[in-house]
Amino acid sequence: MSAFLIFIVLIVLVGFFFAGMYNSLIKLRNRVKNAWSQIDVQLKRRHDLIPNLIETVKGYMTHERDTLENITKARAGAMGASSVAEKAKAESALSGALGKFNLVVENYPDLKANQNFLALQEELTSTENKISFARQSYNDQVLFYNNKIEMFPSNIMANMFNFKQEEFFEVENEAEREAPKVKFN
Length: 185
Fold this sequence. Notes:
It is a single chain. By secondary structure, the chain is mostly helical. It has helices at residues 2-58, 65-80, 84-105, 109-113, 115-150, 154-160. It is 77% helix and 0% strand. Helix 1 packs antiparallel against helix 2 (65-80) and helix 1 (2-58) packs antiparallel against helix 5 (115-150). The mean pLDDT is 86.
């Protein structure tokens, strides 16, 4: 009878082990989703700031229509992207368009003194920093999650329950790896 009891205890312990492993995978997957939602919040904030920025500078930059249209197109592409890879590519294009815009703004001293523009510039700088931190947090969570589903013995549980690797949010072009410089002082 004691051998049967030991067998039952071992079965229960193995069950708890696998339940803990499964719950750990669920927790990590949910952390990845939460980290992605933080990026989405900051990207939406960035997308919402851009029309205000363009409206503020339109009167000053009458000869820079292409620059403003490129920003608008890049923003639309970024808002329409769905997967992590698509969003990373679209956001890189938007960062590039904003970087070119910032270079053009240097030619307009009256614009650089405009209070509305300065406030929007500060908001955009703050948002770019928040995006950077959110992207780092997301990539950290993806790393933990991907490690867990690849390492033994949790990889067995991950395969059984169809846990899939998540994509990192990476900037493709080396030149786009830096946030656009938005300081005009």
